[in-house]
Design a protein that fits this description.
The complex is a heterodimer of chains A (213) and B (480). Chain A is mostly helical and 213 residues long. Chain A is 78% helix and 0% strand. Chain A has one domain. The longest helix of chain A is centred in the last third of the chain and has 34 residues. The radius of gyration of chain A is 20 Å and the shape is globular. Chain B has one domain. Chain B is mainly α and 480 residues long. Classes of the chains: A mainly alpha (213), B mainly alpha (480). The interface between A and B is medium-sized, with 34 and 36 residues.
């Protein structure tokens, strides 16, 4: 059980590095979406017996993080005609190195914290901290709005990973994390609305000059 | 049940605003909601509901000490909103009115939340509901401000969720209970796992500190307050920050119960003093009077945080300061909003000679600046004096002198900018501006009421209010 869990968390941590290394927005969005699906499956693997709240968290996460938000981001990308290349503030190689260092550091840091017996030997805590740090790196190290949103998604995925420690005792608070996805949705809507408004503005000025003799 | 009404009434107002068909009369909902909320809060004060063990929502001593301030702030602001929205017929106000009412409901919820998760949900939802308020002017700068607010505030709120998880896990590792109400967490006390409590404290302090606007997480504040309408600035500076501060106080109480109160107090003191230093330095340089109010807000959040670090006496002073700061900032933001509309700008070379352009607002602003920089006999003087006393009683002499030094620097910065805005020759001729912008009673009375309330708080602080602060401060400290 815990080896399957660790395999998936390992994949999620690998996707952090893929996200940090992506040079183009569509591949960054794909990495974040895949990570969303991977971590969405985790709650089902955590415990052998079936519980409907846990299943609901899992299904909701896969749908929202894996499909709804990525498709919204793709739409924003099309609506806004954003240039797909990224202009990093922190270069790709340095951010990869920092991300790898964060992953190793997270494993060391997590070793210093006490865990419940059933969570010992599971990579949830280091995976969560590594993903949060990589999310921060993307948030700070990229200039494009959409890449910042992807950084925020990673940050949120890391928090979700951590929340899995609590999913048995207090599933509701973990579910509340869905509000963070709402924040992301507001971000994306903001990008789309802003662009559309700007296009209306230019349309209006063109009309104004057309009316002149 | 009564304590739920104070949350549900504003939500009902928000739904009514969304459904209201007529653009011209929708704004009248604001004073109706504000008055209903004030009446309900008064009812709660007179006839407090019995505390229910294990309840997620409760009108406890802390909410009793703070919720009336938010209610008063909203009530007066709602009358200003009535006149303000009449001046802005070109902007649709459906979302604006609904967001304002929703914000009031969510603030009432977060001040009464007795559960870690519910507290987080309410603060997160309140953050989201303020985004359309910041975006109201739809200028490029307003979009930028809203974006920064959402990005920085959203990151802060995400970290506070992580912190909440850590605190939950501290309880799980300790006793294995999954009850995340503050009362239950406090009862677990020393049984909570210390390393996780410390991790939670750092994350929650950074997270809610971002919402509160403590330096160095304050960077969204100048942009947001600079671009938002005055009424939104007043509600953010007096309401949103108060909710975040109360969240920090409630978490501090749990950390204190777990035996790490010393660490919590020390970090609050350092962060508070750092905020005051940063704000004082920025106040000396900014040329924009609305951004100036934002830095002043950072400074006052620092004062709250310093007070919270100084034991019962400091906590009483902080709760007093929540009132005096919210109410005085109300006068400043509303009068600054009037001046901004008259001058067409809030930066110094463009906006000068406001005494001629907007005589009454400019005078309210000047008096408000003196009030907020702790000139007697206004409220902030007495609450800040109480913080200083608490610092000297706690033996924090160094902190006390740094505190006083920052107050002096902030005084210099605020008065320097305020007088270069008020004095001088108006850029626009006074007559032309009078055609464009008229100071009506509707936009003058609310800031005057705030100023009067600040004076009342300073000169004749009611005994029942002092009693509420004392009681709240005692419940917020761990007796052991």
């Amino acid at each position: 059980m815990s080896s399957n869990l660790n395999l998936l968390i390992g994949i999620a941590m690998g996707l952090n590095l893929v996200a940090l290394a992506s040079g183009r927005l569509p591949s960054l969005i794909r990495a974040a979406a895949m990570q969303g699906v991977v971590i969405g499956v985790l709650p089902l693997l955590m415990h052998s017996e079936f519980h409907w709240l846990v299943a609901a968290v899992s299904a909701g996460t896969v749908v929202v993080k894996g499909f709804v938000i990525p498709s919204l981001l793709q739409r924003a990308l099309r609506a806004a005609h954003i240039d797909r290349e990224m202009e990093p503030l922190i270069g790709f190689i340095p951010s990869l190195l920092l991300g790898a260092a964060a992953s190793i550091g997270a494993i060391g840091f997590a070793g210093a914290l006490p865990l419940r017996p059933e969570h010992a030997g599971v990579l949830l805590v280091p995976g969560a901290f590594a993903t949060v740090v990589c999310g921060f790196l993307l948030l700070m190290g990229r200039t494009k709005a959409i890449s910042q949103v992807c950084g925020y998604l990673l940050l949120e995925n890391g928090i979700f990973l951590f929340g899995l420690l609590l999913i048995r005792s207090t599933p509701l608070i973990v579910e509340a994390g869905i509000l963070l996805d709402l924040t992301v949705a507001v971000f994306v809507i903001g990008i789309i609305v802003d662009r559309i408004q700007r296009e209306f503005d230019t349309l209006d000025t063109r009309k104004l000059t057309a009316l002149r003799e | 049940m009564k304590e739920l009404l104070v949350i549900l009434a504003p939500f009902a107002g928000a739904i009514a605003a969304l459904a209201w068909p007529r653009e011209g009369t929708r704004r009248r909902l604001l004073p109706v909601v504000g008055a209903a909320h004030a009446v309900l809060t008064g009812w709660l004060l007179v006839d407090p509901p019995a505390a229910v063990e294990g309840s997620w929502i409760g009108f406890d001593a802390v909410s009793r000490a703070v919720l009336p301030a938010v209610s008063l702030l909203f009530l007066v602001c709602s009358f200003y909103g009535l006149s303000y929205l009449r001046l802005r017929p070109e902007r649709g106000n459906r979302i604006f009115v609904a967001s304002l009412c929703g914000l009031l409901g969510l603030l009432s919820l977060s001040l009464q939340a007795q559960h870690l998760g519910l507290l987080w949900v309410s603060v997160e939802a309140a953050t989201l509901s303020t985004v359309p308020l910041l975006h109201f002017n739809r200028t490029g700068r307003a979009v930028e401000a809203a974006w920064k607010y959402l990005l920085i505030g959203g990151t802060g709120i995400a970290l506070s969720l992580l912190g909440s998880f850590c605190l939950g896990y501290a309880s799980l590792v300790g006793t294995g209970g999954g009850d995340l109400t503050f009362a239950a967490l406090g009862r677990e006390g020393a049984a909570l796992s210390r390393p996780w409590v410390l991790a939670a404290w750092v994350l929650l302090l950074v997270g809610y500190g971002t919402k509160m606007g403590l330096a160095p997480m304050h960077t969204w504040k100048p942009d947001a307050y600079g671009e938002a309408p005055g009424i939104v600035g007043a509600l953010l500076a007096g309401g949103m920050t108060t909710a975040a501060f109360v969240a920090i106080l409630r978490v501090r109480q749990v950390v204190d119960a777990a035996g790490e109160g010393l660490v919590a107090n020390r970090t609050l003191l350092v962060l508070g003093l750092f905020s005051m230093v940063v704000a004082a330095l920025f106040l000396l340089g900014t040329p924009d009077f609305k951004r100036m109010l934002a830095y002043s807000s950072v400074e006052h959040m620092g004062i709250l945080s310093v007070g919270a670090a100084l034991g019962v006496g400091g906590l009483v002073a902080s709760l007093f300061h929540v009132w005096s700061n919210s109410i005085t900032k109300g006068a400043l933001f509303l009068s600054a909003g009037n001046m901004r509309r008259a001058a067409g700008s809030s930066r110094v070379p463009e906006a000068t000679g406001m005494v001629w352009l907007t005589p009454v607002s400019a005078r309210v602003f000047a008096v408000g600046v003196f009030a907020i920089t702790a000139c007697p006999p206004f409220g902030p003087f007495f609450s800040e004096l109480q913080v200083v006393r608490a610092a000297s009683a706690a033996g924090q002499t160094g902190a006390m002198f740094l505190f006083l030094g920052c107050l002096l620097l902030a005084f210099l910065g605020l008065t320097r900018l305020a007088f270069s805005v008020l004095d001088g020759r108006p850029r626009r001729s006074a007559d032309a501006s009078r055609d464009r912008f008229r100071e009506t009673a509707g936009i003058l009375v609310p800031p005057l009421v705030f100023l009067a309330a600040s004076l009342w708080l300073g000169l004749a602080t009611p005994e029942w209010l002092r009693g509420l602060w004392d009681e709240a401060a005692r419940t917020l400290t761990y007796p052991g």
